[in-house]
Structure formats: structure tokens, C-alpha cells
Specification:
heterodimer, A: alpha+beta, Alpha-Beta Plaits, 2 domains, 5-stranded antiparallel β-sheet, 4-stranded antiparallel β-sheet, elongated, B: alpha/beta, Rossmann fold, 6-stranded parallel β-sheet, 20 strands
């Protein structure tokens, strides 16, 4: 499946996330995940958007984003020259006959146990989206009670920054 | 100098060059109206019958001048009544600033009386909008709204001002009018690549839209067409951008475009597309649209360049500046064969022209056309009459054809005509239909109270003609809810509002009525009877291609 990730630097103003997502909605962009947080400067927020579209959709999404006055800068992020990861919290049932397998899998993937009760185990894992998908898939053999993941955040490698890309 | 927020708003509007605002008062904007009273000698306020009419008037003002049109409304229903007007301006890229009052900041979000989230509602139909957070920010927010409205691709901006901010006061320092963001030409490399492509073409076609008018690139466009030896066509929004009598001009293309224009575009091998957006009414079936042509698309809005069609060359930049750089790179052409085939298309079009006598839509509009001055603005509503006006009226100056293209807003015309008249000072014509006119005819009250010289030519066929046409052609003549059967006496109605009017059932009556209307110094309505089964032709069926074009329909009894 084709896809792309872009980082969007926006003014940290009331309602800015609404403006961005409202545009995605009305123009029917297929958004896979979206994260937003304040940046090194309180004046800006950084939105990371992943979409499943191809090149035409990517171009259109970037061009439409640039039309929003709150958007300061946009950067396309490519796997080869950026680091990306997301955070997963997963809660599985703590059952006697599967406990061992769950813990082995967690160890193999570097997932850390952050809560352990008689009924459930909560694990935390950070890593590339693909790795997290694989771990969740593995856990489907057991009883998943709940999943929460942040969506991907990305930075370019090296000293290049989104601020240097200001329009 | 310390002023209240309401005074600051009015002073900032004046400072930004605004000479007239359209609006309607109410509880949450009453302070602004008090300031309008104070500054009444410097800023004229036009009270409309309904906020929608005020929004269309501001829009008509902006379309006729290129300057920002301003509309004021109170919170709640006042604000929501602007929505259709704002959306109309948005779809046609018209610079409008809408100012709304709102409940005091502390009451926002509590569903107070007449509170509505107007910035939420107008998010997708404005370039940007603001809730003013403090009186200190007010003047700069209004300035920023003016700057945004006219920069790049123009459009509406809304400023929502809670009542406490209208009351609070702070220091006001006047500023000069804001300047639009600097215009720029497309990238040189792209221009060179496009020039190579254009130089290779043998059947070039120059196609423009509303963007040409905004950029003021008429002279460059004509030079381009001369150099390429190319015919010129336009979209609905482009009408009046080039003199209709120019020998290279084939008129409007698209669903109801001129036959020769649509055909020439279909057969062209290179289409220079200037300030257009390839809307579905223009292209029909996109897979079959201009398949022989390489498209060179120039637009100030980069997001338009590959939105609807994939151009061979996409140039993001101001049209005028980009064309100026492109022109020296183009070779003078002499496309004898292409010229000849375009002439043949024009001759074929002549054969399909409606030559009947009597009160046909074409004859009615030609009678109007004979009376139009160089500068006469013509506004339209939406429907068959709009297309007949677009096809048959001739314009000689940009910004003289004022019509809702993108949104297709029935009820747009009267408000827009009021705005255009007040902006230009010229006698202004409204071409409308009985369906559209019925939607916002309350603005006759405004035209009368302002004593505006408006000629209202109402093509009255007793039906919703455009929908009826589709029902005739595609829905087995099931005339579901398109027969009006209203018995409205429009001349008596005009008189009831204090306007003048006359009925025209024959060509002679029409001539007399037009003479009277063009001599009147107030609004004059002509109730002009036309047959309910007139068609707008040619017609490219929705989603069809040039192979499906309908140029003639045998009418019953002929």
C-alpha cells in the first residue's frame, strides 16, 4: 500500500487542529493517523500526518494545507532519511496457559510490562509502526483487552529541521 | 487616542478604504451600529431586507470593483443568514470581509440567546476566520482580514467580535491600507518547459477564467493569443474578461458553452489554461475531456493545478507576471489550417443559432444587449436565464458580468446588482427568472429605499426552467415540483415595494418597457413572458463528452 507521512508546523492557536482536520474531512483525504503536540517553541505546534494516498493525493494534501493561514511549514518525511516511531500500550488477559508465551513475545519485541495484575498485563512498546503492527498481530493469538497507540511521530535525520523549510 | 472596540472597527474599515458596508443590526452588534451613526459621514451603511441580501451586495460590490466588500450582521440568525452569501463568494474567489457580533466572551459556549459558533460554521467556506480575543487585537485582526481577502487567490474572511470587545476600549493608531501579499511569477524553469511545449503546438487554444480578471492580465492574454494565432474561450467566470467582440473570442465553453468554443477546445493540441479550475460543468466526463491536448495550467493557487485534471505543465504564479515572462519565449505562429477549422466550427455554430422570431430568450436578451453601455454591470441569478445571458450578452470591460458560478446561488442576483450599482454608480441590470427572483425579492425594498437605477429583466416562464429542462431530457418529462403556478403579478409586486414596472408579452412591449426602464432613475422591473419549454442549448449532458453534445431539440408542434 502506497502511503506518505508529512510533518506540518502550525501556529499554536486555538482551533488550529480543527482547521486542519476540517479541511481533511471536507476534501476526503484518507488519514491513517495524526499526532499533534507543542514544539520547542510554544508559538508552534507540530502535526504529523500519515495517509494512504499516492503521489497525487500527497501533492494535493500539501497544496491544500499551505492554503491555511495557520500553516507555517510542511516537510515530507521519507523512511530512508527520517526516524519515526510510535508508542503502544496494550492490555492482554493474564491467563495461566498463555502467560509464558505473552511474556516471551514481549521480550522478543522489547515491550516492557508496565502493569501486572491477576487478570491482566499492560505492556508498553515504542518502535516503528510496522514493528508495532507485528507485535499486535502476534498478541491476537491471546486475549487482547484494550489497545491504545499514539500514531507515528517523525523527525528528519541530521541537522535539517522543519523550521528551515518555512514558506 | 482611546476608542471603544466598536469605534475602532468602524475607523479601521474607513482606514482600509471601505466607503460602503451592507448589513443589518441586532443585539450583539448594536454598539457597532452606534459607531456607524457617529461616523455616518465617512462610511455609508446600507440596510438590507435580510442578511443574505447584504452578503450578496458586498459580494457584488467586490466583483464589480476588485475591492473588498464588507458585510455586517449580528450574532446567531444574523450570522447564519450570511452563510449562503459567504459560500457564494468563496466558490467564486471574491474578496469579502464579513463582520459578525457575538455574545460577550464570558458567555461564549453556553448557548446564550442568539449565540452561534459562526467561525465553526464558516470554517470550510472562508479563507480564514477569527474570533477577536481582545480589543487590543481588533484593529490588526480586521487589517489582516482585508489583507487575506485580496491576497493570492481572493476569498471571504469572517471576523467575529464578542460584544464585550465592542465595548472595551484601547488606544487606536490609524494605519495605511494593507497591501496584498506580493505577487510572483511561476518558476523560470517551468515557464521555459511550458514554452517549449507551446511552441510545438499546431492547434493552440487559450482558455481563461475568473483568475484572469483578478490578475488584470487581459492585455497579456490578447498578446498571447495573437502570438500563438489561437482562438480564445472562457469559463462562465471569465465572461467580460475579454471584449466579447474580439475576433478571436469564441465565448464561453462548457455544459452550455458556445458550440465552436467547446469544439475548438476539444480539437486543440495545446490548451493554455489561465486562472481556471476545470470544474465538472466545464469538463463533463474528465476521462474524455480534451484528450488530444497537452494542458498548460497557470494559476496563483497551486492546489488547483492537479486537482481536477493532470496538466502537462503546471505553473503556479500570478497570471500577468507569468505571462509577461512566457511571452518572449514564444514564437510567432501562423496556423492557417487551425484557423480554417475554427472558422468552420463558427459557421456550424451559426447554423444552430436560434433564429425564431418573437419572444424567444435570445431575442429578449439581444434587445437588452442593444441597450447595454460599455460600463453597464449585468448581474444574473441562477438557471436558464443565467446561461442565456452568458451566451447572448456582450461585454467590453472586465467585472461587468456578475454571476454566481461555483455555488450557483439562486437569489444571488438582486443583492449583487445592488452592490454592483453602489460600487460603480452605473445603471445596473439584473437578468433573473421567476424562480430565482422569488427567493430574495425582498431586496426590492433596499433598491427602492436607496433609489438605485436598476433594470430588472425577469424572464417569466412560470417554471423552474433549468430543472424542467433536465426533467424533459432525462426524467421522462416528470415535472416534479418545477411548475410554479403562483399567479404572482410581478409588476404589481414591484409597485407594492415602491418600484416601477411593466409587463412585456410582445417584442414591441419589450422595447417600450426597456426604453422606460433605461430612462428610470429608480428600480424598474420588466415582467417578460417566455415559453416554459425553451431550452438552453447547446447542452453537454452531465458527465458526458463532446460526442454527446445536444445542439438542437425538435420541439413539439414544429
Amino acid at each position: 500500500m502506497a502511503g506518505f507521512t508529512v510533518a506540518v508546523l502550525v501556529h499554536n492557536r486555538f482551533g488550529v487542529l480543527n482547521r486542519v482536520t476540517s479541511m481533511f474531512r471536507r476534501r476526503r483525504f484518507n488519514i491513517k493517523c495524526l499526532t499533534v503536540s507543542e514544539t520547542e517553541s510554544a508559538a508552534y505546534s507540530r502535526i504529523t500526518v500519515s495517509s494512504e494516498g499516492g503521489d497525487t493525493e500527497k501533492r494535493q494534501l500539501i497544496d491544500q494545507l499551505y492554503k491555511l493561514p495557520d500553516v507555517c511549514s510542511i516537510k515530507e518525511l521519507h523512511d530512508e532519511d527520517s526516524v519515526s516511531c510510535e508508542l503502544l500500550l496494550i492490555k492482554v488477559a493474564n491467563e495461566q496457559d498463555t502467560r509464558r508465551d505473552v511474556q516471551d513475545a514481549a521480550q522478543a519485541y522489547g515491550a516492557k510490562t508496565v502493569d501486572y495484575t491477576r487478570e491482566s498485563i499492560v505492556m508498553q512498546m515504542t518502535g516503528p509502526t510496522r514493528q508495532i503492527d507485528a507485535f499486535i498481530d502476534l498478541m491476537r493469538d491471546y486475549t487482547i483487552l484494550e489497545i491504545c497507540r499514539t500514531g507515528v511521530v517523525s523527525l528528519e535525520r541530521g541537522d535539517s529541521t522543519i523550521r528551515k523549510n518555512d514558506r | 487616542m482611546k476608542l471603544s472596540g466598536a469605534d475602532i472597527l468602524v475607523r479601521t474599515l474607513i482606514e482600509q478604504g471601505c466607503d460602503v458596508v451592507f448589513g443589518y443590526p441586532g443585539g450583539q452588534i448594536i454598539n457597532v451600529y452606534d459607531s456607524l451613526h457617529k461616523y455616518r459621514n465617512e462610511l455609508k451603511h446600507v440596510l438590507t431586507a435580510h442578511e443574505q441580501g447584504a452578503a450578496h451586495a458586498a459580494d457584488g460590490y467586490a466583483r464589480a470593483t476588485g475591492r473588498v466588500g464588507v458585510v455586517l450582521a449580528t450574532s446567531g440568525p444574523g450570522a447564519t443568514n450570511l452563510v449562503t452569501g459567504i459560500a457564494t463568494a468563496y466558490l467564486d474567489s471574491v474578496p469579502v470581509v464579513a463582520v459578525t457580533g457575538n455574545v460577550p466572551t464570558g458567555q461564549l459556549g453556553t448557548d446564550s440567546f442568539q449565540e452561534i459558533d459562526i467561525t465553526g460554521i464558516t470554517l470550510p467556506i472562508t479563507k480564514h476566520n477569527y474570533v477577536v480575543g481582545s480589543v487590543e487585537e481588533l484593529a490588526d485582526t480586521v487589517r489582516e482580514a482585508f489583507r487575506l481577502a485580496v491576497s493570492g487567490r481572493p476569498g471571504p474572511v469572517l471576523v467575529d467580535i464578542p460584544k464585550d470587545i465592542q465595548i472595551a476600549s484601547c488606544e487606536y493608531v490609524p494605519q495605511p491600507p494593507v497591501q496584498p501579499e506580493e505577487r510572483f511569477a511561476a518558476k523560470e524553469m517551468r515557464i521555459r518547459q511550458a514554452a517549449d511545449c507551446i511552441n510545438e503546438s499546431r492547434r493552440p487554444f487559450v482558455y481563461f477564467g475568473g483568475g484572469l480578471i483578478h490578475s488584470g492580465a487581459e492585455a497579456e492574454l490578447l498578446e498571447l493569443a495573437e502570438k500563438l494565432d489561437a482562438p480564445i474561450g472562457c469559463s462562465l467566470m471569465g465572461i467580460s474578461g475579454v471584449d466579447s467582440d474580439h475576433p478571436r473570442f469564441l465565448g464561453m465553453q462548457g455544459m452550455h458553452g458556445h458550440y465552436a468554443c467547446s469544439m475548438a477546445m476539444h480539437h486543440a493540441d495545446c490548451i493554455l489554461s489561465l486562472g481556471v479550475r476545470f470544474n465538472d460543468r466545464v469538463t463533463g466526463n474528465r476521462a474524455k475531456f480534451a484528450t488530444n491536448a497537452k494542458i498548460v495550467h497557470i494559476d496563483v493557487d497551486g492546489a488547483e493545478l492537479a486537482k481536477n485534471i493532470q496538466p502537462a505543465h503546471a505553473l503556479r504564479g500570478d497570471l500577468k507576471l507569468t505571462l509577461r515572462e512566457l511571452l518572449p519565449l514564444l514564437r510567432q505562429k501562423d496556423n492557417a489550417e487551425w484557423r480554417e477549422s475554427v472558422e468552420k466550427l463558427k459557421a456550424e455554430e451559426q447554423k444552430t443559432v436560434d433564429s425564431r422570431e418573437g419572444m424567444t430568450p435570445r431575442n429578449v436578451l439581444l434587445a437588452l444587449n442593444r441597450r447595454l453601455g460599455e460600463n453597464t454591470p449585468v448581474a444574473t441569478d441562477v438557471g436558464q436565464h443565467q446561461m442565456w445571458a452568458a451566451q447572448n450578452l456582450h461585454f467590453h470591460r472586465p467585472r461587468r458580468f456578475i454571476s454566481s458560478g461555483g455555488l450557483g446561488t439562486m437569489g444571488f442576483g438582486l443583492g449583487a446588482a445592488i452592490g454592483a450599482q453602489m460600487a460603480t454608480g452605473e445603471r445596473t441590470v439584473l437578468v433573473t427568472g421567476d424562480g430565482s427572483f422569488g427567493m430574495c425579492l425582498n431586496e426590492l425594498a433596499t433598491a427602492v429605499s436607496q433609489r438605485l437605477p436598476l433594470v430588472i429583466l425577469l424572464l417569466n416562464n412560470g417554471v423552474l426552467g433549468m430543472v424542467r429542462q433536465w426533467q424533459t431530457l432525462f426524467f421522462d418529462k416528470h415535472y416534479s415540483n418545477t411548475v410554479l403556478d403562483r399567479k404572482t403579478d410581478f409588476v404589481a409586486l414591484a409597485r407594492a415595494f415602491g418600484a416601477d414596472g411593466a409587463r412585456a408579452d410582445t417584442p414591441e412591449q419589450l422595447e417600450a418597457a426597456l426604453d422606460a426602464a433605461f430612462a428610470s432613475d429608480g428600480p424598474f422591473l420588466i415582467d417578460c413572458a417566455i415559453d416554459k419549454d425553451e431550452f438552453v442549448l447547446p447542452m453537454l449532458p452531465p458527465g458526458g463528452s463532446m460526442d454527446d453534445i445536444i445542439v438542437k431539440i425538435e420541439r413539439q408542434g414544429e
